Amino acid sequence: MKPTQAELERDMAQMGQERYASRRTKAEARGLETTTPTGQWLLQNAVDLLSTRIISWRGAAKAAPGRRHKAVVYYELLPEDLTAALIARVVLDSISQRKLFTRTAMRIASILEDECRYICLADTDPEIWRIVKKRVSDYMGYACKRRHIVRLMNQMDHEFVTWSRYDKMQIGTVAIQLMAEATGLIEVVNRRTIFGKTRVEVMATDKTVRWLEQSHARSEILRPVYLPCVEPPKDWVNPFVGGYHSPDLHKRTLIKAWDKNYLVQIKDDPMPEVYSAVNRIQATEFRVNAWMLKVMEHFWSKSIEIAGIPQQEDIEIPPAPADIKENEEARKTWRQQAAIIHRLNASTRAERVTFAKIIHLANEYIDQPMSFVAQLDWRGRYYATSYHLHPQGPDHVKALLLFAKGAPITDDTAARWFKIHGANCWGLTKASYDERVQWVDENKELLLAIADDPYANRQWEDCDEPWQFAAFCNEYAQWIEHGTGYVSHLPIALDATQSGIQLFSLLLRDSVGGAATNCKPSVASAPPEDLYQRVADRVTEILEEQQDEVAAARMWLEFGITRSCVKRPVMTRPYNAQLFSAMKYVREWAVEESKAGKGELPTENDYRASLYLAKTIWEAMDSVISGAQNALKWFAEVAKVCARTEAAIWWTTPTGFQVKQDYRKYKSRSIKTRIGDTIRQHKLRDDTDALDRRKMVNGLAPNYIHSLDASLLFKVVNAAAADGVDQFAVVHDSFATLAADAECLAQAIRRSAAEMFSEDLLGAFKAEVEALLPFDADGDQIELPPLPEYGSLDPLGVRDSQYFFN
Question: Distance (Å, rounded) from C-alpha 417 to C-alpha 425?
Answer without folding.
Answer: 12
